[in-house]
Amino acid sequence: MASDSSEKSDLQEREYDFPYHHLPYLTPRGFAVRYRAMAWGFEYLCYLAHVRELVHSLAPDSCLDVGCGDGRLLGLLGPRVPRRAGADLSERAVAHARAFHPDVEFHVADPADVPGVFDVVTAIEVLEHIPDGDTGRFLRELARHARPGGHVVLSVPTVAVPRAPKHHRHYDEQLLRRQVQESGAVLSFARVEHVCRRSALVDWYVKLGLTRFWFVDIRPLSYAAWRYTWKKLRHADARTGTHLVALLRKEE
Fold first, then answer.
1. What CATH architecture is 38-250?
2. Which of 14, 64, 91, 111 would bridge 141 by S-S if both were Cys, CB 3.0 to 4.6 A apart?
């Protein structure tokens, strides 16, 4: 009986990998909805998993994620990076991050106020949110938190997709290199990659399944769409890539 009880407790514990009780919610008009969905979820997972592989390839002992949001990247990095820290100006985002990842160190702070240096510093889809006059200071802060010989990883949306209203700019490689050079940060480019091509087939499947009236998730098709995204659409070029991922090295 005790073994059966323990097994049931383990099943329940595994369900808390995600706070599923928060999936159903009431809209402002009082209607009940049983799901939450992200139309660009395949693309999001694609560039995030790509960055995870890039960071893991560097085999760092420590990583600071600036603009960490709810801590998703740090959670994906897992214990292969022994020391993980995140910083974000949003108290709400960091509250979620701490709840999801109690083993990670989080700061509600400007990067200038975060202590220490790290093997890798990441800023994933953050630079486009920084006003034009502040990008130099922001990049210098990223470099300051990287140890000599360490790395900075940047991910930004490209000019291949329309600029979102909440973004100050989208990037091509030339603009990103110019901002880094003009910032005075002691960083050199080691690699630049364009990732996440769009596919009419995947876009059609997403649009068909997610409208204002219904959400349909056909698991075999979703699995196939993700495999296709990861295997066929992950690597792109300057014309087709929706995101630009840059690996920079701090001078020793």
1. 3-Layer(aba) Sandwich (3.40)
2. 111
Annotated domain spans of the chain: 38-250
The H or E element spanning position 205 is helix 200-209
Q: Letter for the amino acid at 136?
A: G
2-20 residue pLDDT tens: 566 677 667 767 767 778 7
Give CA separation, 64 vs 39, 126, 184, in Å.
28, 13, 21
Residues 6+ apart with CB under 8 A from 151: 58, 60, 119, 120, 121, 190, 247, 248, 249, 250
Residues in the chain: 252
In sequence order, the β-bridge partners of residue 32 are: 26
123 neighbors 221 (Cβ within 8 angstroms):
no
Report the alpha-carbon distance of residue 81 to residue 145 in Å, rounded: 16
Instruction: Report the pLDDT value the prediction gives residue 22, as an integer from 0 to 100.
Output: 82
SS3 content of the chain, % helix, strand, coil (to 5): 45, 25, 30
Integer Cα distance of 77 and 139 in angstroms:
23
Residues 79-105 as b or e (16 or more Cβ within 10 Å = b): eebeebbbbbeeeebbebbbebbeebe
Residue 164's closest CA among 202, 125, 194? Answer: 125
The single-letter code of the amino acid at 182 is E
Residues 154, 243 contacting (CB under 8 angstroms): no
Helices (H) and strands (E) in the chain, counts: 8, 9
Both tokens assigned to 207: 């649009």
pLDDT digits (tens, 9 = 90+) for 16-26: 777 878 888 89
The pLDDT of residue 52 is 98
